[in-house]
Amino acid sequence: MGDGPSERGVTGLAGFRRYTWWAVPGSSAVLLVLLIGDWILDDDWPLWIRVAGAPVLVVETLATVVLLGRRLDPQSADANSRRPPVGWLVVAGAAALALAVLPLTRREYGVWAVAPAVTVAIAATHLAPRRRRQVIAGAVVLALLPGGVLSLISGDGELVYAALFPAGLVACTVWLTLGPLWAWDIAGRLDRARRLEAELAVKDERLRFAADLHDIQGHHLQVIALKSELAARLVDSDPVRATGEMKEIRQLSYDALRDTRAVVQGYRRTTLDDEIANATRVLAAADIDAGMRLDTPTDGLAESARHLLGLVMRETTTNVLRHSRARQAAVVYRVIGGVASLRISNDGAHEGGSDTGGTGLRSLGERLRAAGGELTWERDGERFVVRAALPVDSREVT
Q: Which of 33, 242, 331, 348 could be a cystine partner for 234, CB 3.0 to 4.6 Å?
């Protein structure tokens, strides 16, 4: 019954398993030793019964402890799919049969069913629920017969006791055995679910990191590609401006490297203010007439809300550059009734230009909904509109 390091340090079930071990295998062994052992040691019974019964009781007790101990193994599969140790079940069944026959030879109606009841309870723990109920019901009915038939034949007048007590003993033993084991199974499932939840949280965080990294790299690379094309066109006609564009490309490369390192270290937090300012510069460099209308200052937003809306602004700006031939774009930000509203629209949209990637607007939509907001987008002819709404005091779900 020793607890392995993983169980003690990870699952947190060591204490509950120790309690269940004493409640089920321990109490079953004590039940066998006290009831049958006391009967075997009684000097009133012939010596041959005591000589034959003592080693059989030891075997039955050992088999009971082994079988129930394995049933509590935390590394085993679910109880319904666990294959029972057939060899030990056969040994326990044979010993239980012997410990039933010996008392019946002396018409001990209250003792003969103890070992069979424990064995039936052990076998039932390894069965599926439907088969388990059938086996238990059959065992309770069969327990009526040996004592009842023997009492009728001998005419000792103990028919009711001889028939009902063993049946009740079987039912009670099964109930007391299956109850703690059912609780153990539930605790095991909950612990596995807890560990699975922790693994999913790690995977979700990795996906979020991948999405942020994709957004940063995609945005910077798109702007670098745009400015590189512009510098190439200007290198002959306007070398001075081309030089300025190439300097900006170099700075953008540094910024991309810095932001990538910041994301890896977990320090970078995009804000709506920064992304609106960045969008103004980038769209202007792409010869897109961008109108920025901020009806309300962004200072009243919670930090997480500014971060999420900043991500929307950055992703939408990247989509305008990548998926459209826009000549005009408009950004409107306002707060109405405690809800921050961000609307970004552009012309020049074409078929297939809306974002459908799992790390783009769809991913951001899930994050806004988790924070109590909403993100929608629609295409009307050549116009593409993105709308984001978020409570000003919302907190991002991490």
A: 242
Residues facing residue 349 across a β-bridge: 324
Q: Which of 197, 216, 235 is the last residue of a domain?
A: 197
Kindly state the tokens that stand for 48: 């041959």
Per residue in 216-264, pLDDT tens?
Answer: 777 778 888 888 888 888 888 888 888 888 888 888 888 888 877 776 6
Last residue of a domain, one of 148, 179, 197: 197
Considering the domain architecture, whether residues 24 and 160 belong to the same structural domain is answered as yes
**Hey, is 142 helix, strand or coil?**
helix
Q: Which of 307, 282, 302, 177 is nearest to 227 (CA)?
A: 282
Residue 35 belongs to some domain of the structure: yes
What tokens does 175 get? 């109930």
Kindly report the CATH number assigned to the domain that includes residue 296: 3.30.565.10
Our count of domains for the chain comes to: 2
Enter the pTM of the model.
Answer: 0.49
Sign, CA torsion 100/101/102/103: positive
Residues 274 and 184 in one domain: no
Tokens of 70: 């394995």
Task: State the SS3 of 211-270.
Answer: HHHHHHHHHHHHHHHHHHHHHHHHHHHCHHHHHHHHHHHHHHHHHHHHHHHHHHHCCCCC
> In this structure, are 141 and 17 located in the same domain?
yes
| 258 falls within a domain | no
Alpha-helix runs per DSSP H in 105-158:
114-125, 129-143, 145-154
Return the CA Rg of the chain.
Answer: 38
Task: Quote the CA–CA distance of 333 and 300 in Å, as a whole number.
Answer: 13
Q: Is residue 64 part of a domain?
A: yes
Is residue 222 in a domain?
no
CB 330 within 8 A of CB 290: yes
How many Å is the maximal CA-CA distance in the chain? 123
Range of the domain at 20: 5-197
E strands, 285-336, where?
289-294, 328-336
Q: Which ranges of the chain have pLDDT less than 50? A: 1-11, 77-81, 267, 353-358
Long-range contacts of 293-298 (CB under 8 A, 24+ apart): 293/330, 293/331, 293/332, 293/333, 294/333, 294/334, 295/332, 295/333, 295/334, 295/335, 296/333, 296/334, 296/335, 296/340, 298/271, 298/272, 298/273, 298/333
Q: What is the pLDDT, as a whole number, of residue 352?
A: 52
